[in-house]
Specification:
The complex is a heterodimer of chains A (374) and B (533).
Chain A: H1 2-16, H2 24-27, H3 35-68, H4 84-112, E1 120-127, E2 130-137, E3 144-147, H5 153-157, E4 174-177, E5 182-188, E6 193-197, E7 202-206, E8 212-216, E9 222-227, E10 240-246, H6 248-264, H7 274-288, H8 290-293, H9 311-314, H10 317-326, H11 342-353, H12 366-372
Parallel strand pairs in A: 1-5, 4-10
Antiparallel strand pairs in A: 1-2, 2-3, 5-8, 6-7, 9-10
Chain B: H1 2-11, H2 26-31, H3 35-63, H4 74-109, H5 117-125, H6 127-136, H7 155-158, H8 162-190, H9 203-234, H10 248-282, H11 289-302, H12 318-346, H13 355-378, H14 380-386, H15 390-420, H16 426-453, H17 467-483, H18 486-497, H19 512-516
Helix pairs in contact in B: 3-4, 3-5, 3-17, 4-8, 4-10, 4-15, 5-8, 6-8, 8-9, 9-10, 9-11, 10-12, 10-13, 10-15, 11-12, 12-13, 13-15, 13-16, 15-16, 16-17
The chains are: A alpha+beta (374), B mainly alpha (533).
Bound molecules: heme C, protoporphyrin IX containing FE and copper (II) ion (2 copies).
One copper (II) ion binds at residues 193, 228, 230-232, 236, 239 of chain A.
Chain lengths: 374, 533
């Protein structure tokens, strides 16, 4: 109820102070940037309007009674206690109001669910705790990357000041062109996540083993930020979604660049030196393993095993490669074969086998990893 | 039946205030089959759990006071939200109303005791071990369950042994609820005083009768769901594991088939208390008694067919979404009928505002706000935006705290004179109400804004634009928590130093416990049933 009043009040304010424009977003849904989000926004405002009217009417009656029908004012109690007509009226009138409300609600829902005829199709995969994007159809087909939180641990721990987009920034945002219908296919790799961008009016659970679809068509350029919306374990609060909506030309340029980078990607037949593998492995470890096994390799007692001193890490390398490639069913240890390239897996395994107290001195080559892929 | 009559008759033989045949000291409480003793234990247990759950809420709100991680690690934070939810729902709110049922139902229908006194003892004593399991789970390797009170798979499959502890606790709690329900149904259907037809039953008893059927229907469903998690975890089944041919969303369907009726299991007895309190302080009979009975029954029936409104974003055919949306919107109709009838009861009454009435009016006002935010959530398209955000957190706290908890407070102040024979301190009671009211709204009203603006729930840290409202909410929650210390103090003070209560301190209250029983009510309520005209 107070929302609406607050919103209209802030609208009045905003007219005078354009600098405060972003403040409106704090009281209400974010400024819509797609037709679905706009419809949802309007539907919500309409509902709030109706609700406020009913609420005020009902409680005006109650508070009138509270003030006028007090014993302290000498009011004598009437003894009426039944009236079939009023009962019928206050059953049927709300029913009619609800039926009227159902019409715009259904229309918006049907719009929201119409995923037909997309221009671009992107598969979104939820991992613990980052997002994988695969462009499956339309311009950019074949592009594939992983997007993880870019806010530093220091900001989270509060040892350095927090940046403007604290917790809502990623290393590789999803890039899409303006005005094109984007169909999202959501799935999960380990547990259920939920891909959510408020300004685009889109939230879809990413469920392991199943694919669900939804869509959006951005009608504003800009960067839109959201977060994972389904509890997915320890770092659920730390896997934001960032979508960059750019013009068609910029999008084509971006696609070209991505393609070039992919071509430059590691040649799986190359033989690496131990030092190179270690350097690369440290990065892969920080991005993919540190959340659970920790920077010092000690893990978290009872939940995530230590890799420092682990038999699995000092033991036969085929076992460890298989563990990282295929994960372990029923535990948080995911199958990284789907997310990481052969070189990345080779590097991270080399890194874990030669860090902290582990000193095997072995360099694992990408070819060895490839040999073990099924 | 005959066995139970024998049982109660024998329990009644000592008569009146004579406790000579009962064990004394701690054994009195362990062995007791008396509905009042058991009711008292339920209420005390529930308050203790309220404090434990409250402590967890305090930890959650302390971490959320400012952006950044200050006090607890994310993993522990998730354990706190999970256990807070489980303990508040199963340990605090549900047992509180079973406590009221135990105390009040026999007195209100003119019975000597509950129909199955021994089972009554058993259903209470199952609770402490279950609570203990939940708390101990925090200390096993890997810590407590951290998958949310909804225990969604596959996250719940990933947990350590703490999860098994909660699954076991849920089993035990379910058994307790089922026994309690059988007892309540049998008592209400069979032990009513002569002349008390079903349509003369006090509203509180009606709401419990309906709730007991809900419990019987859905507790086994929950037990089944968590057992399936257990076998998926340990015995190689794949009910919810897609890799083995199962479906994680199946779990959500089963859970919410339990979960939505569960929210009414919490709400309906609260409606019952309010339906006793408002007429008493309006000095006017409940308006539309018959309509109230039918509305409550329709809410209960509808509650079985709306469950997937918790799953609008899980992905289902659009026709399914449309159906669940319409069915959910429909629940607003009988809920509205109840609110209108309560307001009509107050209309042209002779109102006074002692503490129970204050809490009842607070309930009415804020439960309606929760109902309205529920209506907003029922619109599938809007829910897609606000599902799993703080908006939902605000919604269910308006219905569960300002709704169910406020109604429990109203009930405690209302019946305390009958239970203890002493009056509570009215001034302190009013302080309790106003502090709770102000701090509750400070805590939860702003969460609507947070949710709308895009703050997800179950997160230990948040972006900077959410900082102001989170700080307000955290301060409010501390105030709310501290205010609750008043309740045990007021009860203690009443028992120790309170003025002697007359048999009928509220002149508008006209159910049997007020008209026929002295204060404090005798140990065995009605040895000879009263005749109801
Ligand atoms: C989501 C948390 C998580 C992440 C991220 C993770 N692991 Fe694991 N890892 C686990 C768990 C849990 C186990 C224990 C599985 C079991 O029960 O056997 C494990 C086990 C292992 C083991 C076997 C250790 C032993 O002593 O049995 C290795 C090796 C390993 N992980 C390597 C990695 C590497 C390399 C990465 C990064 C590419 C990684 N893990 C990322 C959770 C994780
Ligand atoms: C007018 C009546 C009501 C309507 C229309 C309604 C509607 C809804 C809807 C649609 C949701 C799902 C929101 C989401 O997760 O996105 C929800 C959540 C919830 N509701 Fe209600 N509700 C009503 C009354 C109640 C009552 C009476 C209670 C309990 C006393 C209650 C407790 C809850 C709880 C606990 C949740 C959150 C569950 C969770 O996700 O953890 N609701 N409600
Ligand atoms: Cu998540
Ligand atoms: Cu529900």
């Amino acid at each position: 109820m107070r929302h609406r009043m607050a919103t209209s009040a802030s609208c009045v304010l905003l007219a005078g102070f354009p600098g405060l424009a972003s403040a409106a977003d704090r009281w209400n849904m974010q400024a819509p940037a797609s037709i679905v989000a706009q419809d949802i926004y309007d539907l919500h405002m309409l509902m709030m309007g109706i609700i406020v009217v009913i609420f005020v009417a009902v409680f005006a009656v109650m508070f009138y009674s509270v003030f006028a029908h007090r014993r302290s004012k000498g009011h004598q109690a009437a003894q009426f206690h039944e009236n079939t007509t009023v009962e019928l009226v206050w059953t049927i009138v709300p029913l009619i109001i609800l039926i009227l409300m159902a019409w715009p609600a259904t229309r918006t829902l049907l719009l929201l669910r119409d995923t037909s005829n997309p221009d671009i199709t992107i598969k979104v995969t939820g991992y613990q705790w980052k997002w994988g994007y695969d462009y499956l159809g339309g311009e950019g087909e074949g592009i594939s990357f992983v997007s993880a939180l870019a806010t530093s641990r220091d900001q989270i721990q509060g040892t350095v000041p927090k940046g403007e987009h604290y917790l809502l920034e990623v290393d590789n945002p999803l890039v899409v062109p303006l005005g094109k219908k984007i169909r999202i296919l959501a799935t999960g790799s380990d547990v259920i996540h939920s891909w959510w961008v408020p300004a685009l009016g889109i939230k879809q659970d990413a469920i392991p083993g199943f694919v669900r679809d939804t869509w959006f068509r951005a009608d504003k350029e800009g960067t839109f930020r959201g977060q994972c919306a389904e509890l997915c374990g320890k770092d659920h609060g730390f896997m934001p979604v960032v979508v960059e909506v750019v013009s068609a030309e910029k999008y084509s340029a971006w696609v070209g660049e991505q393609k070039k980078m992919a071509a430059r990607a590691d040649d799986p037949n190359k033989t690496w030196t131990l030092a190179d593998l270690m350097a690369r492995g440290a990065k892969v470890y920080a991005a993919n393993c540190m959340a659970c096994h920790q920077a010092n390799g000690q893990g978290v007692r009872g939940t995530f095993p230590a890799l420092d001193g682990s038999k699995a890490v000092s033991g036969p390398k085929v076992d460890q490669i298989s563990m990282v490639l295929n994960g372990k069913q029923g535990t948080a240890m995911a199958a990284f074969g789907k997310q990481l390239s052969d070189s990345e897996i080779a590097a991270v395994i080399t890194y874990t086998r030669n860090s902290w107290g582990n000193k095997t001195g072995e360099a694992i080559q990408p070819a060895e990893v490839r040999a073990q892929r099924k | 039946m005959s066995a139970s009559i024998h049982d109660t008759a024998r329990a009644g033989h000592g008569g009146g205030e004579d406790h000579a045949h009962h064990p004394s000291g701690i054994m009195r409480w362990v062995m007791t089959t008396n509905h009042k003793d058991i009711g008292t234990m339920y209420l005390c247990f529930s308050f203790a759990m309220f404090l434990v759950g409250g402590l967890m809420a305090f930890i959650i709100r302390t971490e959320l006071f400012q952006p950044g991680l200050q006090f607890v690690a994310p993993d522990f934070f998730n354990q706190m939200t999970t256990l807070h939810g489980l303990i508040m729902v199963f340990g605090a709110i549900m047992p509180a109303f079973v406590g009221f049922a135990n105390w009040q139902i026999p007195m209100m229908i003119g019975a000597p005791d509950m129909a199955f006194p021994r089972m009554n003892n058993w259903s209470f004593w199952l609770l402490p071990p279950a609570a203990l399991l939940l708390v101990i789970s925090l200390f096993v390797p890997g810590g407590g369950p951290a998958a949310g009170w909804t225990m969604y798979v596959p996250l719940a499959t990933q947990m350590g042994p703490g999860m098994d502890f909660s699954i076991f606790a849920v089993h035990i709690l379910g058994m307790s609820s089922i026994m309690g329900s059988i007892n309540i149904i049998t008592t209400i259907l069979n032990l009513r005083a002569p002349g008390m037809t079903m349509m003369k039953l006090p509203m509180f008893c009606w709401t419990w009768l309906i709730t007991a059927y809900l419990l019987l229907a859905v507790m086994p469903v929950l037990a089944g769901a968590v057992t399936m998690i257990l076998t998926d975890r340990h015995f190689g089944t794949s009910f919810f594991n897609a890799a083995g041919g199962g479906d994680p969303v199946l779990y959500q369907h089963i859970f919410w088939f339990f979960g939505h009726p569960e929210v009414y299991i919490i709400a309906i007895p609260a409606f019952g208390v309010i339906s006793q309190v408002i007429p008493a302080f309006s000095r006017k009979p409940l308006f539309g008694y018959t309509a109230m009975v039918y509305a409550t029954a329709s809410i209960a029936i509808l509650s079985f067919i709306v469950w997937a409104h918790h799953m609008y974003t899980a992905g289902m055919p659009v026709t399914g979404q449309v159906y669940f949306m319409y069915a959910t919107m429909l629940i607003a109709v009988p809920t509205g009928v109840k609110v209108f009838n309560w307001v009509a009861t107050m209309w042209k009454g002779s109102l006074t505002f002692e503490t129970p009435m204050l809490f009842a009016v607070g309930f009415l006002f804020m439960f309606t706000m929760g109902g309205f935010s529920g209506l907003v959530l029922s619109m599938a398209a809007v829910d897609v935006q606000v599902h799993d955000t703080y908006y939902v957190v605000a919604h269910f706290h308006y219905v569960m705290v300002a709704g169910a908890l406020f109604s429990a407070f109203a009930g405690v102040y209302f019946w305390l004179p009958k239970w203890t024979g002493r009056m509570y301190d009215e001034t302190l009671g009013k302080w309790h109400f106003w502090l709770s009211m102000v701090f509750f709204n400070m805590t939860f009203f702003v969460q609507h804004f947070l949710g709308l603006a895009g703050m997800p729930r179950r997160v230990p840290d948040y972006a900077l634009q959410f900082a102001d409202f989170n700080m307000i909410s955290s301060i409010g929650s501390m105030g709310f928590g501290v205010s609750q210390v008043l309740l045990p103090y007021i009860v203690y003070k009443a028992v120790r130093h309170g003025a002697k209560a007359p048999q009928r301190p509220w002149d508008g209250a006209d159910t049997l416990e007020w008209t026929h029983l002295p204060a404090p009510a005798p140990y065995h309520s009605f040895e000879t049933p009263p005749v109801v005209k």
